[in-house]
Amino acid sequence: MAGGAAAATGVKAAGPPLSKKQEYFAFALITSLFFLWGISYGLIDVLNSKVQKSFGITKLQSTMLQVAYFGAYLVFSIPASLFASRFGYRKAVILGLCLYCCGALAFWPSAHYEAYGGFVGSAFIIACGLATLETVANSYITVLGTPERAAFRLNFAQSFNGLAAFLGPLIASKTFLTEKEADSLTSVQYVYLAVACLGAAVAVLFLFAKLPEITEENLEDEQEAAGIADTRPLWQRKHTIFGFVSQFCYVGAQVTTATFVVNLFKESKHHAMTSSQAAEMLTYAQVAFMVSRFAATPLLHFFNPSLVLSAFATLCSVGAIVIASTEGHAMTAGVFMIFIGESVIYPTTFSLATSNLGRLSKRGAGLLCMGVAGGAAFPPMQGALADAKNTNISYMIAFAGFCVPIMYGAGMFFYTRRMAATVAQNLALQQEYAGNNLEKVDSTDKIEDSQVEAAIRV
What are the transmembrane regions (predicted)? Predict the structure, then answer.
């Protein structure tokens, strides 16, 4: 189906009825969180190159920033989802913004005392806040509206993440990566102070805004309206578990790709760039990412998201091979192929893997956000290979990661087709019962055909 995973057209959105004005306001407010995530993510990749020089450490040692930053998702995503389940989306957002601001402010003393451990700790705290925000925002966007448009909504909202992601390297190239600041961490202090102020401003908006809450009961009602009966625990939902694996490998490949782009252009004999110039190239690549995300989002309205996922992941894999085996302009083309291909993978995987979860949607969102921890696992592997061989060859690590979402997309194509058939049959049964004026039966009794039962339990 074009807009989601096995969602029946005409099924009403979960939660209380909203006017278009209320729905657009809630969507805009939640989308602002993606902008905050993009700013922070764009800065952390360039900060990796900065600390290599400032603290005189190796590429492998510098990846501790990524380990702390993305490892926080492994530690904090599930607690964040449980918090959201108990206290609601709005309070979870405020918690995430508080942690985000605290982490950003912690960079000030870390830079002042030139403590690399402080940088690592600050990255961990800010990422705990982001893990909370992502768990909430991704999940809320997917359920804020009709199910069949979930992938479209999430990709559109995540486009603003891409808008902010290119600002991070641009800000860094004009501040702490300039020749004037080559031996200083002062500009790092002020950049992250500004990030903290931005987070605080958004927190104030959420404190006073009236955000419509969507409960687990609302999500369960939506499932019943769609004719989907599935009471299995989360760990038995194969499309969600495999989605987590795909997300883990993809995010690992995405993060490690961006982490070493600055090194890639600095070490290239053909380019021979300074740190500031290499950061600008990363900015251009992030611009390509942003433009591709906006441009590719409409594809999810017309084509099966699973096929779009596999196609874009294939483009990333080809780009990684090109980087590993070439130099010069071909290598540059490979970098841009990856960033263009990455544009729709994360949000599309998220919407596919959290589809049809009902009251488990918030916990499923937490599990998918845990997949971001792949960003902690892949950079050390690539850093070790880059130190042992060279940065170009190390992109074979990214290639391996990009291959997994190709397979996941292919598998989900068949899953969504079977689920769509199941939903259609269940709705037809409901109409038949209603037409015969029969008493409403429990949705778990409507699925008697063994083939339909097997389709649901994929």
Answer: 24-44, 64-85, 92-109, 115-133, 154-177, 189-209, 241-261, 281-300, 307-324, 330-352, 364-381, 393-415
